[in-house]
Amino acid sequence: MRRKGTLHVRVPHAFPDERYGARMTANAPLAAEERVSTAGEREVLEAFIDYFRQVIVSKLAGLSDDDVRRRLVPSRTTLIGLVKHAAAVERGWFHHRLAQRPREQIGANSLGDDASWDVTADEAITDVVAEYAEACTESREIAARFALDDTVPHHRLGRVSLRWIYVHMIEEMARHAGHADILREQIDGATGD
User: Which InterPro entries does the record cross-reference, listed alphabetically (predicted)?
Assistant: First the structure.
């Protein structure tokens, strides 16, 4: 059953960021470039994808259930829908594509299609955030089994490397973080990471 009220989720609980000696709060995420400005390639890629994962979730902090479900643009895009869609995209690229698990065995949307934006009336904010956190945790575990140069089949591109998947996901999450920025500003004027 959906619980009304304001989201009070500490982002570090859902998205631990211990690897870089930093903890992120919903109010003050530590920018990826500050954490890994002299790190190796993999650490940089992982820091940036995790940073944008965290920013997307942090945009829900302090908002009511009604606020995160508000449609402020003609598309299906809502703040909570962004998080739900991001979970589907994680499952699509890491769980299906990289791990080569059949979609029917994943158990949730892994297409990132229009339906991936839909949040049912009985899904609470914390449920959707937890679903995303779980998808991200599994994505990290899957990626840890691969080298950046390892490749997997792709129906359109032939093969893609883990490096390519990381860069694509950084682009995807950064774009959606920008969408979340605009929606949050429209709701209560809050801006920034």
Answer: DinB/YfiT-like, MST-like
Instruction: Let me know: does 109 contact 88? Beta carbons within 8 Å.
Output: yes
How far apart, in whole angstroms, are the C-alpha atoms of residue 48 and residue 21? 15
Cα angle 98, 160, 165 (rounded to 5 degrees) comes to: 65
Alpha-helical runs (H) found in the chain = 11-14, 32-35, 41-58, 65-69, 79-90, 103-106, 125-143, 162-188
d(CA 59, CA 121): 20
Hey, where are the domains in the chain? 11-188
Token duo for residue 175: 């774009």
pLDDT in tens, 45-71: 999 999 999 999 999 999 999 999 999
The closest alpha carbon to 79, from 193, 192, 180, belongs to: 180
Q: Which CATH superfamily is domain 11-188 in?
A: dinb family like domain (1.20.120.450)
Give Cβ neighbours of residue 57 (< 8 Å, ≥ 6 apart).
Answer: 9, 11, 14, 15, 26, 83, 129, 132, 133
The pLDDT of residue 34:
66
Full-model pTM:
0.83
Using CA atoms, how far apart are residues 179 and 79, in angstroms rounded to an integer?
8
pLDDT tens track for 137-162: 999 999 999 999 999 999 999 999 99
Tens digit of each residue's pLDDT (9 = 90 or more) over 109-143: 999 999 999 999 999 999 999 999 999 999 999 99
